[in-house]
Write a structure and sequence with these properties.
Chain A: Residues 369-399 have a biased composition (Low complexity). The complex is a heterodimer. Chain A is of the alpha/beta class. Chain A has helices spanning 15-26, 54-65, 82-90, 116-126, 146-149, 159-192, 210-219, 255-258, 264-275, 318-325, 330-334, 336-345, 347-361, 363-371, 381-398, 412-415, and strands at residues 2-7, 32-36, 68-72, 102-108, 134-135, 141-143, 200-203, 206-209, 223-228, 233-236, 281-288, 291-301, 307-316. Chain A contains 16 helices and 13 strands. Residues 1-10 of chain B have low confidence and may be disordered. Classes of the chains: A alpha/beta, B alpha/beta.
């Protein structure tokens, strides 16, 4: 179980942070608690430009992927800190990442009141229609007299408070499980298992079972994602160790929702160039997760050329490049003529030769080579490649997830 | 007994700091305060725009940003304060809460200050929930303001009541606003007199 614990303050020192760190350690056998900070978020404003919302987008992603959220709430002037309120405003502005999300409120303070007022306020805010969270009722974690309730090394040493915290957190985990079991019967099952397991799909070139189709996608060393013709994230192949880690929670999101704000213009440019027939492929070689990878976007078209969507085809090319660099093709390559002979001897290898050597010689020309069977594409894809790289390059460097479609994010902001 | 407000003219004419509680470029709450400043031109109403105020952070020990110092000066020198409070998520905006946190940390210009809370919203509730919450925040020990409670000004459906030029043409609304201002000025004078007496007595 994945739980996100939000530190409800931007202060450098906070007992509310210490409480969450204690919970992370104390409850490690019950849940995987990730602590998230809010100090790097911009102050909420409806006028904040998209380019300044990357941190917001990342947080939304985390919220979406979590099974439950814990909010720790200090108290400033009888209310929650502005920094925490700003975070909730981000998480509820043109997005529904908090909708039906199990949430729990905890708090520590120096005084006896133990942040009681701010917790009441926090609960009110979380059940307001804009948030619509599934708030854990009751189960109040109000730890007062902070400097005496915690030891120097951050352990909760007040036994009564500890017992209460254990009870409340256990209830929270059960509360989450209620919603999880509901979800399992729905979306999750249908993703892991084809719905009709015994059916065949008859292609002009042979037939496959649904199971075979699923497993083919899981086996080939490239991962595939599909944005459908209405620009919604429709499907991803269930390949192990994906370069882009996708989450079923993101299925059905629009392109704007599921990409980091900075990447959206570049992605839409690619998709639109496919939709209007200008291009059929865009290639982006880049480093991901510490190795050389290749992302290729292809226009998915019906046999009559009608646009069906965009597929993103991604994989590590380290293995192929190593083969190339270690001279796997060098002897064959000496005589140009023998290439063709090889092709007839071993067509599988020859195909890969064409594809991969093409790529390393000149990635732009290669685009046209690779897709020549589908439709001959105009070469100027090159311009767009650079655009896309330039724009998304920054986010790639910051974090690999930055590329993810999955991105829960739903960045409310980006829709705007 | 000598009161700090000893000039008859000053008694009738108040200097009022009017804080617009939104950081959005388009804000009916700011427009409402600007209308009030124009309409009640007999008083000196200083509309404070909080768009440039950074998020409050207690790591700023000992100093405050210049934009906050400017607001501190303007609020300190005012006889009374009006705060227009929008409502996000049934609650006070983070932008306004941040300003109040700044004004209750290293400086405390709202202490003993008579404050009237008003609000506008495009929905039916007219920011009523955030006003209730704001009242609770303003009476907390760190802020310690005096909240005017005789009249409650909630403007719902602001998009239809405030026109493109920022004017209110609805007579009923204007009359009620005038009543609120009249009552509030009496309240503010009474509070200021009491605070002055208290200070005198504690000398």
């Amino acid at each position: 179980m994945k739980i996100l614990a939000l530190v409800g303050t931007n202060a450098n020192f906070s007992y509310n942070r210490i409480l969450l760190k204690y919970m992370k350690k104390h409850f490690r056998q019950m849940a995987d608690i990730e602590i998230a900070e809010i100090s790097q978020l911009p102050a909420f404003s409806v006028d904040t430009p998209l380019s300044e919302q990357t941190e917001v987008w990342k947080l939304k992603q985390k919220v979406k992927a979590a099974d439950g959220i814990i909010f720790s709430t200090p108290e400033y002037d009888h209310g929650i800190p502005a920094a925490l309120k700003s975070t909730v405003e981000w998480l509820s502005y043109k997005t529904d990442v908090l909708k039906h999300k199990p949430v729990m409120v905890v708090g520590v303070s120096y005084g006896r009141q133990a942040s009681a007022r701010s917790q009441v306020q926090m609960r009110q805010i979380l059940v307001s229609p804009d948030c619509d969270a599934n708030l854990l009722p009751g189960n109040e974690v109000l730890i007062g007299n902070a400097s005496h309730s915690f030891s120097k090394d951050g352990r909760l040493i007040n036994a009564e408070a500890r017992d209460n915290l254990e009870n409340c957190f256990t209830h929270f985990v059960k509360y989450i499980q209620i919603f999880e079991s509901v979800n399992k019967e729905g979306l999750d099952m249908s993703i892991k298992q084809p719905t009709i397991s015994e059916a065949y799909i008859n292609f002009p070139t042979g037939r496959l079972t649904l199971k075979e189709v699923q497993q083919i996608f899981s086996t080939i060393p490239f991962e595939i994602d599909l944005i459908d013709s209405t620009d919604h994230f429709a499907w991803f192949s269930d390949k192990p160790n994906r370069e882009h880690v996708r989450n079923v929670a993101s299925l059905g999101e629009t392109v704007q929702e599921c990409h980091p704000p900075l990447a959206v213009p570049a992605v839409m440019k690619i998709i639109n160039s496919f939709r209007n027939g200008e291009k059929d492929v865009v290639t982006r070689p880049l480093w991901m997760n510490g190795h050389r990878s290749l992302i290729q976007y292809y226009a998915l078209r019906d046999v009559n050329g009608h646009y069906l969507g965009t597929i993103e085809f991604t994989g590590s090319v380290e293995y192929i490049l190593n083969l190339f660099e270690n001279g796997a093709w060098s002897t064959d390559g000496n005589t140009g003529a023998s290439k063709h002979e090889d092709a007839s001897d071993n067509s599988e290898e020859a195909d890969s030769v064409d594809a991969s050597t093409g790529a390393s010689e000149s990635s732009d020309d290669d685009n046209t080579d690779n897709t020549s069977e589908v439709v001959a594409t105009p070469a100027p894809a090159a311009n767009d490649d650079t655009d896309a790289d330039a724009t998304t390059g920054a986010s790639d460097a910051g974090s690999v997830d930055a590329n993810d479609d999955e991105a829960d994010a739903t960045t409310g902001a980006s829709e705007n | 007994m000598k009161c700090c407000i000893n000039n008859l003219k000053e008694v009738t004419r108040l200097k009022i700091a009017a804080i617009a509680g939104s950081n959005a470029n388009h804000s009916y709450n700011r427009m409402l305060l600007e209308f009030i400043a124009r309409h009640f031109s007999d008083d000196d109403i200083d509309v404070i725009d909080i768009r440039q105020v950074p998020m409050f952070n207690e790591n700023y020990k000992g100093k405050i940003p210049e934009v906050v110092a400017d607001i501190d000066r303007r609020v300190s020198s005012a006889d009374a304060v009006i705060i227009a409070s929008p409502e996000y998520n049934h609650s006070v905006t983070s932008a306004l809460k941040s300003v109040i946190e700044w004004l209750s940390y290293e400086v405390h210009p709202l202490e003993n200050k008579p404050v009237m809370i008003i609000g506008a919203s495009t929905h039916d509730q007219g920011s009523s929930r955030s006003q209730v919450q704001l009242r609770d925040i303003l009476i907390s020990p760190g802020v310690n303001a005096y909240i005017f409670q005789n009249e409650e000004f909630f403007m719902s459906d602001a998009a239809h009541i405030i026109d493109k030029d920022g004017d209110i043409t609805n007579e009923t609304t204007i009359h009620f606003l005038e009543k609120c201002m009249r009552e509030f000025k009496h309240y503010a004078k009474a509070i200021n007199r009491m605070v002055a007496e208290k200070k005198e007595a504690n000398k």
